[in-house]
Fold this protein.
Amino acid sequence: MATVQGEVTKDSPWMLLTPPGTSEYKMHKDESKNRPVLVCTVGKTVLHFDSPCINDLHEMLKQHGDWMPFGSADEQKPAAEGTVEAWGRAETNPLSGWYGLKKGLRGRFGMHLPPLMEAL
């Protein structure tokens, strides 16, 4: 389960677990850049997601209304259709493409965003 209390910063991030509950990771907002991002740290790997993804994903899930598989795939692999992962990189989402921002590490949206959504 996630820890979501108080101000979320690099020094005080959300502490989350991957959907299988096997790996812990951290996430925080970085609003110091021109384009605010969510910074996801998994071990030594740092991923960036466009911060509107939280509200956009929430709205899409409300409209979808039914259970939706998370899916999870590295950027170089195709995402299974009908998954959160596929939506996070689809040209039909509000961003018109990838919410992941680090070239080569744009995938794994379906692995790291749903636990944050659940915590929020």
The chain has one domain: 14-119. The first strand starts at residue 14 and ends at 17. The chain has a mean pLDDT of 90.
